[in-house]
Amino acid sequence: MKMTFRWYGEQDSIPLRYIKQIPNMSGVVTAVYDVPVGGVWELDKILKLKELCENEGLEMQVIESVPVHEYIKLGKPSRDELIANYTRNIRNLGKAGVKCICYNFMPVFDWLRTDLKTKAKDGSNSLSYNHAQLLKCDPKNLHLPGWDESYSTQQLNSLLEEYKGISHEKLFENLVYFLNGIMPACDDTGINMAIHPDDPPWDMFGLPRIITGADSYDKMIEAVPDKHNGFTFCTGSLGAGRFNDLPAIAKKYADRIYFAHIRQLKYGGEKDFTEAGHLTSAGDLDIYAIIKALVKAGFDGYVRPDHGRNIWGEDGKPGYGLYDRALGAAYLNGLFEAIEKEK
Ligand code: DNO
């Protein structure tokens, strides 16, 4: 495995040098942030970003994310042009030595939480999700913490309107159409596409969510068997669905898991959860069993510690501060070393 760390580009408050100082850090996971969704990432922009990383001794082999335009998810006529742009991005990223692209296919919203600073007894804070609270929100006038409010209320309303005609099946068909359009570029460049699961893995505000567990993985492989069609195995996203057996998923799909986001959850009510420190003992996911299943099944992808708490007085980007993610990386390094040596 290769240990990596998410870095939000030059606007990130965490310097690359600090990331490099975390033991065993091979590189960062980053993106071009100043091109609107659907646009083309010019090669020189990508190379500049790569140079920044390499100057600090870090690789840039994983991109998270190249976002997918809503019109591709909706299957609108302009999708062909947008898919052609996406393909150009894949080819440019390939020229820069990128090996893996993380993306998602969630309509309108990415990950959703109801609180970004849930305080624990020890004074740390973390993200949490309360289903009853979410149900009280009006999607047409949404002010959820952390949600990237990239749409005006009017744009959001018309998007929500358009999604009324999109069933789970239709959304899945549109995903397959998209994948078939980009696979030739992946075959040529060797880039692996790694879809991120829906977070949390259930429908939101009546919008369909289709990447929710093992069944979705089976469907995707069956529809697009190309080896470059693979997964970002996110323990927190899949784990929020109590129906998911994470070690079993890790074992079954290890050869298609190109990227692993490892984090911990503490369950509350039936659908509620609070994020926690990475250790198995800190929550309800058996991180040890998950890593063991990955390693034993021959997993050889990229790993990153996922959301951390804010600790030691840090007031970092929710989920993406330095300290707790660095502790997470150290813990994961230890688990991997122990399990690999025992193999
Ligand atoms: C949240 C992240 C997601 C992820 C995207 C991938 O912390 O894991 O926002 O980057 O869903 O496209």
Highlighted features:
343 residues, alpha/beta, 8-stranded parallel β-barrel, 4-stranded antiparallel beta sheet, 12 strands, binds D-mannose
Task: Give structural notes.
With 343 residues, this protein is an alpha/beta fold. Helices cover 38% and strands 17% of the residues. The strands form two sheets. The chain has an eight-stranded parallel barrel, surrounded by four helices. Strands 5-6-11-10 form a four-stranded antiparallel β-sheet. Helix 1 links the parallel strand 1 and strand 2. The radius of gyration is 19 Å and the shape is globular. The two termini are 14 Å apart. The model has no long low-confidence stretch (mean pLDDT 96). It binds D-mannose.
Percentage of residues in DSSP E strands: 15-25%
- Give the helices and strands as they follow along the chain: EHEHEHHEEEHHHEHEHHEEEHEH
Largest sheet: 8 strands, parallel, barrel
Mean pLDDT: 96
What is the number of helices?
A: 12
Let me know the number of strands: 12
List bound small molecules.
D-mannose
Give helix % range: 25-40%
Strand order in the sheet with the most strands: 1-2-3-4-7-8-9-12
Low-confidence stretches: none
What structural class should be given to the helix and strand makeup?
A: alpha/beta
What global shape is seen? globular
Radius of gyration: 19 Å
Distance between termini? 14 Å
